[in-house]
C-alpha cells in the first residue's frame, strides 16, 4: 500500500525522487520521506502528511545533495502516520537506510531479538527491524548483507536499501508486492509502479518474488534468492507521461471518468476482428475448454462488483452456473475447486494481496486461471494461465472508474466468446451481441453527454446523510458499484440493496431523511421497480431515478432523473455506471472531500 522509488545516476537525486513520490502518492499518502547519499554519508528527511509537505521541508529536494537515493510514501500499517514512523528508516549508526512496502509478519520476534542485543528502536514500525538487521549482518559485502537480512523476514516486503559505505549503489528486494526496475542511460531506477518511471525511461524489468537487484548508474544486475545472477527480459512501456497527468481536469477521477469512451474502446476494438471476438492473449485449446464445468470469479471491491455483473451476463448467455466470491473470503474457505474449474481473477492493479492469495489457493487445487487485469506485468497477470488485459491506461485516482468499466467490457467479450464456443447462441444473436459490445464506447460518451445536469443534482442532494441504491438483476449489481463510489469519496453512508429485499427488514430505515437512488434500466423489471419506488416514497424518502433514455414513465415516479443510453440489455451496467460515477464525484466535490485520495484508503491494497 506504500510507494517506493530509488535512483542512482549523475543528477541530483532528491528532486527526481520527489517527482517519483508525487506520482506514487495514490498508493499511500499519510507520510513521506527521502534519503540521499551525499558521497560520505546518508542524509534523510521525513514528514508526516503528504509529499507536498516533504517537498516544502526540502526546498523541493534542493536541500539534499547527492546522486543516489531512495524515497517512500506511506499508508500506515504499524504505527501512526507520524514523522518518526515515516520511512526511510536508518540503522543504529546510520550505515543503512531502508524503505519498505508490505508487512513483516515476524517483526515482533525480530524486534525482541534485536532489542535483546542492544539495538534501540525509534519508531513503532515493522520496517525498523530491517534497518537494524542490515547493520547487524554487515560484513563489508552489501549484497550478502541484504540477502542475509531478507532471509530472516517473513511476510510481504519490497525493500529499497542504501548503504553509507557504498555510494552510487542501491539494492532492492521483492517478495509479494510490486517492484520494477527502470533502465536509463548512465542512470537507473526502481519503483513500485511504472508511473514513477515513464518520464525518465520506458525500458523496464518486472521483478519476480524472491529476486533482488543491484543498481549502479551503469548497470542493473538481478539475482535469484540464492544470489545467482539471472537474465531478465526488458519490456517496453507503451504509454507516456501525459497519461498519468491531470490534463487540465480538477481531479484525476474526473479525468478518468471522461477518458472512459477511449478506455473502453481500447479494451474492445483490438478484440473484434471482422465481426469475430479474438483474444490474442487468451486462446485456450478445445480440450482445455471441454474440461471446464465450473466458473468461479474472484476479486475485491469494485473488481468484485464487476464479477457480480458478469455472473448475470455469463449465466444468461452461456447457461453455465457462475460463482462470484470475495477474494478475502475465498482464500480461507477451503474452496471446492478442482481441475475442472476456470477461475476468473479480476483486478485493475494486478497486485491486490487477497486476490493473489485466493488465486494461489485455487490454482494449487488445480484450477485453470484467466486474469482480467489492467497493469501489464503485474503479479496476477504473471501468475495466471491466461490474461486479458483491459488496456485502460494508468488509473491514478484511488476510486476506480475506467478500471471498472473496462473490466466489464472485457468480461462481456469473454461471455459472448464463451457462449459461442459452447454453442449456446446462434450466429444472429452472436452478431447482435458483438455489435452491442462495439457500441459501448459511443454509449459511454452519450452517457456523459446526457447527464450534464448531474452537477446541479449534486448541489441539491449533497446534504443527505444516508442513501440507498436499489435495483433488480443487473441493476442490483450496478447499484453495488454506484453505492461504493459514493461512500468512498464523499464519506456519506450508502448501501446497495436488491429492491425486492428491502421489505424484509431494511425498509425500517426508510424515512424523510433518506435519498433512494432507484436503478430502472432492466426494462423487463420496470414495473417491479415502480412498486419498490412507491414503497419508499410512501415512507417519505426522496427518489433519484436512473432510467433508460426516452423512458418518460420515470418522471411520474422520481424526484430527479439520471439517464442511460439504450443498448443491449445485458450490457446496461457499463453505461449505467457513468452517471453514478459523476453523481458521486460531484457530491464529494460539493462536500469539499479529497476526491483523488480519500481518507483511510490507498490505491493498491497489497496487504491482507
Ligand atoms: C474502489 C476500488 C477498490 C478496488 C479493490 C480491488 O473504487 O478501487 O475497491 O476495486 O481494492 O483492486 P484491484 O482491482 O486493483 O484488485
Q: How would you summarize the topology of this molecule?
A:
Layout (H helix, E strand, L loop, with lengths): L2 E6 L4 H12 L6 E7 L4 E7 L2 H7 L10 E7 L14 E2 L5 E9 L2 H10 L11 H10 L4 H11 L2 E9 L6 E6 L4 E4 L4 E4 L11 E4 L4 E5 L4 E4 L5 E2 L4 E2 L15 H7 L1 H9 L3 E2 L2 E2 L8 H5 L3 E6 L1 H18 L3 E5 H4 L10 E7 L5 H12 L3 E6 L5 H5 L2 E4 L12 H20 L5 H12 L1 H11 L3 H8 L4 E6 L2 H17 L2 E6 L16 E6 L5 H12 L4 E7 L11 E5 L8 H18 L18
Helix pairs in contact: 3-4, 4-5, 7-13, 7-15, 9-13, 9-17, 13-14, 15-19, 16-19, 17-19
Bound molecules: fructose -6-phosphate (F6R).
Fructose -6-phosphate binds next to helix 9 and helix 17.
Give a written overview of the molecule.
- There is one protein chain.
- With 608 residues, the chain is an alpha/beta fold.
- The protein folds into 3 domains: 3-243, 4-Layer Sandwich (Glutamine Phosphoribosylpyrophosphate, subunit 1, domain 1), CATH 3.60.20.10; 248-438, Glucose-6-phosphate isomerase like protein, domain 1 (Rossmann fold, 3-Layer(aba) Sandwich); 450-590, Rossmann fold.
- It contains 19 helices and 27 strands.
- The protein has an 8-stranded antiparallel sheet, covered by helices on one side. It has a 7-stranded antiparallel sheet with strand order 5-6-7-8-12-13-14. The protein has a 5-stranded parallel sheet with strand order 19-18-20-21-22, with helices on both faces.
- Helix 12 (379-383) links the parallel strand 21 (368-373) and strand 22.
- Helix 3 (107-116) packs across helix 4 (128-137) and helix 9 (301-318) runs parallel beside helix 13.
- The longest helix has 20 residues, at 402-421.
- Bound molecules: fructose -6-phosphate (F6R).
- Residues 300-303, 347-349, 352, 355, 399-400, 484, 488, 604-605 line the site of fructose -6-phosphate.
Amino acid at each position: 500500500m506504500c510507494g517506493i522509488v530509488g535512483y542512482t545516476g549523475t543528477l541530483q537525486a532528491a528532486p527526481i525522487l520527489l517527482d517519483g513520490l508525487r506520482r506514487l502518492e495514490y498508493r499511500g499518502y499519510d507520510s513521506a520521506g527521502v534519503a540521499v547519499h551525499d558521497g560520505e554519508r546518508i542524509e534523510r528527511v521525513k514528514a508526516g502528511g503528504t509529499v507536498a509537505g516533504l517537498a516544502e521541508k526540502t526546498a523541493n529536494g534542493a536541500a539534499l545533495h547527492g546522486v543516489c537515493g531512495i524515497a517512500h510514501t506511506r499508508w500506515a500499517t504499524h504505527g501512526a502516520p507520524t514523522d518518526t514512523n515515516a520511512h526511510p528508516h536508518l540503522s543504529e549508526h546510520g550505515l543503512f537506510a531502508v524503505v519498505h512496502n508490505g508487512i513483516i509478519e515476524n517483526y515482533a520476534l525480530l524486534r525482541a531479538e534485536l532489542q535483546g542485543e542492544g539495538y534501540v528502536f525509534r519508531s513503532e514500525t515493522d520496517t525498523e527491524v530491517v534497518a537494524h538487521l542490515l547493520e547487524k549482518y554487515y560484513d563489508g559485502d552489501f549484497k550478502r548483507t541484504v540477502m542475509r537480512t531478507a532471509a530472516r523476514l517473513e511476510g510481504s516486503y519490497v525493500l529499497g536499501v542504501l548503504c553509507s559505505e557504498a555510494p552510487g549503489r542501491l539494492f532492492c528486494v521483492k517478495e509479494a508486492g510490486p517492484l520494477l526496475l527502470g533502465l536509463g542511460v548512465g542512470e537507473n531506477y526502481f519503483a513500485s509502479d511504472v508511473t514513477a518511471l515513464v518520464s525518465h525511461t520506458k525500458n523496464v524489468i518486472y521483478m519476480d518474488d524472491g529476486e533482488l537487484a543491484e543498481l549502479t548508474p551503469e548497470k542493473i544486475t538481478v539475482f535469484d534468492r540464492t544470489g545467482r545472477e539471472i537474465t531478465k527480459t526488458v519490456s517496453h512501456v507503451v504509454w507516456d507521461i501525459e497519461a498519468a497527468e491531470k490534463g487540465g481536469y480538477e481531479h484525476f477521477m474526473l479525468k478518468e471518468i471522461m477518458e472512459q469512451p477511449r478506455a473502453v474502446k481500447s479494451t474492445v476494438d483490438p478484440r473484434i476482428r471482422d465481426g469475430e471476438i479474438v483474444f490474442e492473449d487468451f486462446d485456450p485449446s478445445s480440450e482445455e475448454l471441454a474440461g471446464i464445468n465450473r466458473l468461479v470469479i474472484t476479486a475485491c471491491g469494485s473488481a468484485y462488483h464487476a464479477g457480480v455483473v458478469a455472473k448475470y451476463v455469463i449465466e444468461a448467455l452461456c447457461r453455465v452456473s457462475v460463482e462470484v466470491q470475495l477474494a478475502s473470503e475465498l482464500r480461507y474457505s477451503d474452496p471446492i475447486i478442482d481441475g475442472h474449474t476456470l477461475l476468473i481473477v479480476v483486478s485493475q492493479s494486478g497486485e491486490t494481496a487477497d486476490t493473489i492469495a485466493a488465486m494461489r489457493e485455487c490454482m494449487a487445487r488445480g484450477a485453470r486461471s484467466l486474469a482480467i487485469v489492467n497493469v501489464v506485468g503485474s503479479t496476477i497477470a504473471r501468475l495466471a494461465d491466461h490474461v486479458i488485459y483491459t488496456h485502460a491506461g494508468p488509473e491514478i485516482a484511488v476510486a476506480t472508474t475506467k478500471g471498472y468499466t473496462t473490466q466489464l467490457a472485457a468480461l462481456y467479450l469473454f461471455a459472448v466468446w464463451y457462449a459461442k464456443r459452447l454453442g449456446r447462441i446462434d450466429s444472429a444473436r452472436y452478431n447482435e451481441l458483438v455489435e452491442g459490445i462495439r457500441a459501448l464506447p459511443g454509449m459511454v460518451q452519450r452517457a456523459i453527454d446526457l447527464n450534464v445536469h448531474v452537477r446541479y443534482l449534486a448541489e441539491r442532494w449533497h446534504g443527505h446523510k444516508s442513501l440507498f441504491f436499489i435495483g433488480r438483476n443487473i441493476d442490483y449489481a450496478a447499484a453495488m458499484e454506484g453505492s461504493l463510489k459514493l461512500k468512498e469519496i464523499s464519506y456519506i453512508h450508502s448501501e446497495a440493496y436488491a429492491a425486492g429485499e428491502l421489505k424484509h427488514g431494511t425498509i425500517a430505515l426508510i424515512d424523510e431523511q433518506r435519498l433512494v437512488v432507484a436503478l430502472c434500466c432492466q426494462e423487463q423489471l420496470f414495473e417491479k421497480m415502480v412498486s419498490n419506488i412507491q414503497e419508499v416514497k410512501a415512507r417519505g424518502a426522496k427518489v433519484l431515478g436512473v432510467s433508460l433514455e426516452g423512458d418518460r414513465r420515470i418522471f411520474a415516479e422520481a424526484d430527479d432523473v439520471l439517464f442511460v443510453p439504450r443498448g443491449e440489455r445485458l450490457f446496461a451496467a457499463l453505461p449505467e455506471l457513468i452517471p453514478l460515477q459523476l453523481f458521486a464525484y460531484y457530491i464529494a466535490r460539493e462536500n469539499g472531500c479529497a476526491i483523488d485520495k480519500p481518507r483511510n484508503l490507498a490505491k493498491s491494497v497489497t496487504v491482507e
